């Protein structure tokens, strides 16, 4: 057969042949011009190189897949070991098939966040629940471990109840009590309710919510056998029932420490921008402690009074620079609380009390902030007994002694 120099691979012997005029030859046909030979040699080299890179690519991808699989297996083993080590829990463990069944195959979605989606569900006894299905690729399992460890130890009217959890291979979910009115966030910001389709909360209701949250945080700090530092107190994590009774939720960033324990090392700054205490992201301001939650609480109740977020994503300034200044400006005007929606004298008194408490809570130095127990006393006391605190200014205090590179969580209760 005359192939006119067609070359290819022999499937039987895996050798490279050229089908020449009289018979097959290896690599080239006799009598071909040197240029043609060069082209054939180049073709052979390119084909071989391409095949080599392809095989190498498959090996690297396969190794990466194996490493990823091993990493996920290790994470799952760590989570499982934690669940076994903490012993019997007061909450029930569910299979993912149970979660799918209780949510009717995830039919009714209530909301979503960075850690996962929330669906409405119903237990076998007919009890309505909110089911948070965590994203499979989210973190190393720490948020899930924190949530189960923290909230399963609590029992307080102002802390959301965890009914159960699911840890089934890569699937993780948390089953909470159902809170009819959702998060506080949607009720306090004017820009999220321009048409006033969401019911307006009057100052008496806002004050009741603020007091309830304070009691919940104080319980986490002092009422449990194990102290819980939440590290993410903000309106989004405050849930309201059908009567607008507040409950603290989302313990994914929380830290546990015993009542006698003085220091817990943590390598990362945690929380949400606008609510993070200065010492959490810069240890020059002091030690990270329960007072860090106090700061977050203070920013939150200032937002509740002002009806605006303390962080404006459209500008480059941080909340610590301009939001407290805006609050101080309204406070110093004294009689002009119309900007804060206070109309009656009683509303003005409530607004002033919440502002003063909030400003005390966001003092730069942790030692200048009140404990949550003191916050409750201030809220329940007379507004006349409250002094205007020093103006909130962020400035790095001089360092008096060298500190380690890690942040430390200490017990500050005074």
Automatic annotation (TrEMBL):
GO terms for cellular component: membrane. Keywords: ATP-binding, Glycoprotein, Hydrolase, Kinase, Membrane, Nucleotide-binding, Serine/threonine-protein kinase, Signal, Transferase, Transmembrane, Transmembrane helix. Residues 104-386 form the Protein kinase domain. Its main location: membrane. It is a single-pass type I membrane protein. It is found in: Membrane. ATP binds at residue 132. This is Putative glycerophosphodiester phosphodiesterase, protein kinase RLK-Pelle-LRK10L-2 family. It comes from Rosa chinensis (China rose).
């Amino acid at each position: 057969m005359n192939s006119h120099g067609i070359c290819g691979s022999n499937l039987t012997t895996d050798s490279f042949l050229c089908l020449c005029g009289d018979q097959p030859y290896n690599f080239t046909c006799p009598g071909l011009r040197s240029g043609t030979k060069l082209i054939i040699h180049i073709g052979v080299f390119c084909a071989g190189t391409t095949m080599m890179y392809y095989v190498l690519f498959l090996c690297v991808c396969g190794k990466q897949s194996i490493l990823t699989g091993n990493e996920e297996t290790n994470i799952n083993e760590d989570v499982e070991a934690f669940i076994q080590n903490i012993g019997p829990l007061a909450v029930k463990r569910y299979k993912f098939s149970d979660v799918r069944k209780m949510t009717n195959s995830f039919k009714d979605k209530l909301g979503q966040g960075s850690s996962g989606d929330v669906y409405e569900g119903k237990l076998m006894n007919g009890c309505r629940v909110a089911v948070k299905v965590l994203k499979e690729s989210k973190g190393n399992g720490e948020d899930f471990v924190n949530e189960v460890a923290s909230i399963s130890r609590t029992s307080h009217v102002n802390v959301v109840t965890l009914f159960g959890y699911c840890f089934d291979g890569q699937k993780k979910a948390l089953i909470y009590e159902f809170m009819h009115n959702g998060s506080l966030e949607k009720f306090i910001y004017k820009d999220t309710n321009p048409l006033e389709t969401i019911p307006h909360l009057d100052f008496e209701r806002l004050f009741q919510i603020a007091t309830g949250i304070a009691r919940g945080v104080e319980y986490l700090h002092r009422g449990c056998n194990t102290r819980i530092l939440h590290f993410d107190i903000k309106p989004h994590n405050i849930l309201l029932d059908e009567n607008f009774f507040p409950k603290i939720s989302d313990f994914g960033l929380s830290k546990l420490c015993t009542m006698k324990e003085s220091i817990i090392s943590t390598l990362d700054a945690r929380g949400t921008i606008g609510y993070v205490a200065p010492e959490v992201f810069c240890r020059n301001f002091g030690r990270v402690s329960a007072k860090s939650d106090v700061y977050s609480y203070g920013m939150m109740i200032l937002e509740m009074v002002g009806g605006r977020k303390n962080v404006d994503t459209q500008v480059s300034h941080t909340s610590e620079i301009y939001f407290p200044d805006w609050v101080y400006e309204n406070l110093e005007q004294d009689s002009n609380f119309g900007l804060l929606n206070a109309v009656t004298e009683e509303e003005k008194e409530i607004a002033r009390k919440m502002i003063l408490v909030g400003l005390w809570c966001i003092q730069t130095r942790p030692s200048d902030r009140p404990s949550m127990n003191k916050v409750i006393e201030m809220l329940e006391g007379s507004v006349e007994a409250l002094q205007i605190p020093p103006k909130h200014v962020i400035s790095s205090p001089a360092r008096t002694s060298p500190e380690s590179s890690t942040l430390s969580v200490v017990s500050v209760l005074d």
